[in-house]
Design brief:
With about 110 residues, the chain is an all-alpha fold. It is about 30% helix and about 0% strand. The chain has one domain (about 20-100). It is globular.
Length: about 110
């Protein structure tokens, strides 16, 4: 019996995320597929850019995910939940973002 399990590009499987969060992985596996279309270039939504490390750092309070705009807008009960018009991040992705901020925004 062959069992096939697939994940959409927009949802990172828990096994696809490393145990120690880094900006590079966060950007490659979550920001690029879910947010960059609306938050880059000359027409970035609300002039919020997510193109590089400094952009994400500006939206984060190092060590304090609950005070970070980046994390707060991803929560299901956010006034303007991101990614807008798409499925919310799964629990593994939310934990990954939270830990990235809590650990001080490691590159």
């Amino acid at each position: 019996m062959l069992l096939l399990v697939t994940f959409t590009a927009a949802q990172a499987a828990p096994s696809q995320l490393s145990a120690t969060p880094t900006y590079r992985e966060l950007h490659e596996k979550m920001i690029v597929p879910k947010s960059l279309r609306c938050h880059s270039g000359n027409h970035a939504a609300r002039q919020i850019f997510l193109e590089n490390y400094d952009d994400l750092a500006r939206l984060s309070v190092s060590g304090r995910p609950d005070q970070s705009l980046l994390y707060e807008t991803l929560t299901p009960d956010a006034f303007t939940r991101m990614p807008m018009g798409a499925a919310p991040l799964n629990s593994a992705e939310m934990t990954y973002v939270r830990e990235w901020i809590r650990l001080g925004l490691p590159r």
